[in-house]
Structures are given as C-alpha cells and as structure tokens.
Amino acid sequence: MGLILWLIVGGVVGWLASIIMRTDAQQGILLNIVVGVVGAFIAGLIFSGGTINNAPLNLYTFLTSLVGAVILLAIVNLVRRGSVR
Questions:
Q1: Dihedrals φ, ψ of 28, to 5°?
Q2: By Cβ atoms counted within 10 A, which residue in 49, 60, 61, 62 is the most buried?
Q3: What is the crossing angle of helices 59-81 and 29-46, to 10°?
Q4: Buried (b) or exposed (e) across 67-76, using 16+ Cβ within 10 A?
Q5: Number of C-alpha atoms within 13 angstroms, CB side, residue 35?
Q6: What gap in Å lies between CA 5 and CA 74, rounded to an integer?
Q7: pTM of the full predicted structure?
Q8: What is the pLDDT along the chain (85 residues), one digit of tens a residue?
Q9: Under a CB-based contact definition with an 8 Å cutoff, are residues 16 and 66 in contact?
Q10: What is the C-alpha to C-alpha distance for residues 8 and 39, in angstroms, rounded to an integer?
Q11: Measured in whole angstroms, how far is the alpha carbon of residue 51 from the centre of its chain?
C-alpha cells in the first residue's frame, strides 16, 4: 500500500511542478511520476527535512518534494533550452 501511495503522491507532485514550470503539455503521467519521485530525492539532498521518499506524508514533506521537482524541471529546461523559462 505504501508503494501505491508513493507513486500517486509522486505523480501529483510531478504534475504540479510541470504546471508551475509550464512543461505539462510535454510530459505524460509516467514522466510526472518520475519527476515527482526524483524531485523528492533532490529535495532530500538539498534540505534537511523529510520528503515523500523517506518521511510520513504531511504538508511539509509534500511542499519540500514539490520544490525539489521544480528544481529538477528547471535544471532540465536549462540543459535543453539554455534558459529556465
């Protein structure tokens, strides 16, 4: 049950990050999940708090994971286009 919740929350985090970074039309549900989970991992490296990967789900872990996903999409946009947008 934890894995299913982790994938659902990762998908929501990735979807919200793609809306914030205006890349929603370019990626589907699978890429949204990957962005959410990898973004949460990046946030875990940057911030000294919990993320959806390693702590109980609450507002702080959700927002931390969202910030990490936005950072990931900004890095991808910087590499692909030469600008964050």
A1: -100, -165
A2: 61
A3: 110
A4: bbbbbbbbee
A5: 31
A6: 26
A7: 0.84
A8: 578 888 888 899 999 999 998 887 777 888 888 998 898 888 888 887 777 777 788 888 888 889 999 999 999 888 887 766 6
A9: yes
A10: 14
A11: 10
